[in-house]
Amino acid sequence: MSKEAYESAGLAVESSLHGPAHPLVLTGARLIDARGIRENSWILALNGRIEQVGQGRESLESALRAAGLPSLPPSFQPGSDTHDVNADGVEFIDAAGFILTPGFIDIHSHGGWVHSFDDGDEAIRTARACHMAHGTTRQVLSLITNPVDTMCTNLRSVRRVMESRPDVLGAHLEGPFIALSRKGAHDPKCLRDPEPAVLDNLLEAADGCIRQVTLAPERDHGYEAISRLAESGVVPAVGHCDADYDQTRRAFDAGARILTHVFNAMNGIHHRQPGPVPAAVEDPRVTAELINDGFHVQDPCVDLAFRLFPHRIALVTDAMEATGCEDGAYKLGSLDVTVKGGHARLTSNGAIAGSTLTLDVAVSRAVQAIGLPAHRAVEAATLTPARALELDRPNPITGAPLGLLAPGYAADLLLLSPADWSVKTVVCNGRRIQT
């Protein structure tokens, strides 16, 4: 696709989000969420929320009557050759033969379709469409390390976009408060300590839109910044750091609750120098991000991570602007990136520069390459990231809770192919998305 085609797709997705939330019925699916698997299931969504969930045609007819909605049209026979039906203002979707899950939630990603979340409203629209097409119905927009004034401008852009887009959850600052020795693909000239005045500037510019901040706790003012962020309703994350085991434990006690992309950009596990990972394993308050692309973390260690952090792995993409695109030359912030074989590296020194991963691929790999039970893989892309940001309950950001297929939860729904877990249908906030 051309850049213009990507941007046109972004406009189509945005238009879908702004449309009316008609009553919606999906029926005949294999329903999978963090609680398990249910066959021959249906969901009724009203006004952007899940109204009822059940199994079998009789219970669905009862739910439709209770809601004052028309019965299933005679022409609608799930699993037959009939297509989806719109009847009396209700959209009936034939989900027979498909997997039905909650929408995916990505709390760490930088862009897609040749656009970065750092580059303003139009770029956000297009990059969001890339990830929406792959099932990510809600997303935190990760902003790369830049001069503080630039980061403040980018935060204002995210805040502005949030006013009209329920799929944008807010911003994640990955830097500038990270360790030079673990900078990865971040501009070393922009790294700095989290002095109170700098933190004040960022929080003021954000106007409440920052969801998490990744920092190295060992930097000067690190623990003070963690406490300040936590008190401000921001989730501090330990990452891109040289912190040892004791320093990491101290960070968690100060309020840090996320370990940014576990195993990457941190000290490894050594029998005499445990490092951050064992500290996070011991602390049930901590969620561990994981990039499951088979490149950032090899499969045996992906499997190990799920064993070390039961119900606490949040699959993330760390996706950059080349996501959904061909190999070639791209940008990550101000730095040049070369993508070859789908792997992004800094052109200057070969350091890994984010990924080209999408969450549908991460979930598929968890099931088909790692052998994880399907409901555990789905949990890691839905309920766990929602819980990490306290969005698994009624909240002022999304209103309805996220992460489960249950009454009262947001109607964020995916129909996936059972063969490869590819996305066939996307519903966000009760609206069927044109992707």
UniProtKB/TrEMBL annotation:
<dbReference type="InterPro" id="IPR003764">
    <property type="entry name" value="GlcNAc_6-P_deAcase"/>
</dbReference>
<dbReference type="Pfam" id="PF01979">
    <property type="entry name" value="Amidohydro_1"/>
</dbReference>
<dbReference type="InterPro" id="IPR032466">
    <property type="entry name" value="Metal_Hydrolase"/>
</dbReference>
<protein>
    <submittedName>
        <fullName>N-acetylglucosamine-6-phosphate deacetylase</fullName>
        <ecNumber>3.5.1.25</ecNumber>
    </submittedName>
</protein>
<dbReference type="InterPro" id="IPR006680">
    <property type="entry name" value="Amidohydro-rel"/>
</dbReference>
<feature type="domain" description="Amidohydrolase-related">
    <location>
        <begin position="99"/>
        <end position="432"/>
    </location>
</feature>
<keyword id="KW-0479">Metal-binding</keyword>
<dbReference type="GO" id="GO:0008448">
    <property type="term" value="F:N-acetylglucosamine-6-phosphate deacetylase activity"/>
</dbReference>
<keyword id="KW-0378">Hydrolase</keyword>
<comment type="similarity">
    <text>Belongs to the metallo-dependent hydrolases superfamily. NagA family.</text>
</comment>
<keyword id="KW-0119">Carbohydrate metabolism</keyword>
<dbReference type="InterPro" id="IPR011059">
    <property type="entry name" value="Metal-dep_hydrolase_composite"/>
</dbReference>
